[in-house]
Specification:
With about 80 residues, the protein is an all-alpha fold. The protein has one domain (about 10-75). It contains five helices and no strands. The chain has helices spanning about 5-10, 10-20, 25-40, 45, 50-75. It is elongated, with a radius of gyration of 17 Å. The N and C termini lie far apart (about 70 Å). The model has no long low-confidence stretch (mean pLDDT about 80).
Length: about 80
């Protein structure tokens, strides 16, 4: 008996969650790479996140980076 892709790996549900949740598959992999390389998440941590949880963490990270960049700009203005 053949097992369908859906039974083994999440199939179409997983595909549509990836394609609609991140704009494109390319953005999904770019975001994963950034989280792995620059922010020290493990791939297991990223893959095991619920989609809304991942969106929440990425949003918080973007806000933090924006805040840090603003602080750097303010410090450099004073010099």
């Amino acid at each position: 008996m053949w097992l369908s892709t859906y039974d083994c790996h999440g199939g179409t549900a997983k595909f549509f969650r990836l394609s609609f949740g991140y704009g494109s598959l390319k953005n999904y992999y770019i975001t994963n790479f950034s989280l792995l390389q620059h922010h020290k998440y493990s791939l297991g941590d990223i893959e095991n996140m619920i989609p809304w949880e991942r969106d929440l963490y990425v949003g918080m990270l973007v806000a933090h980076i924006t805040e840090e960049n603003e602080k750097i700009k303010q410090r450099n203005k004073g010099k």
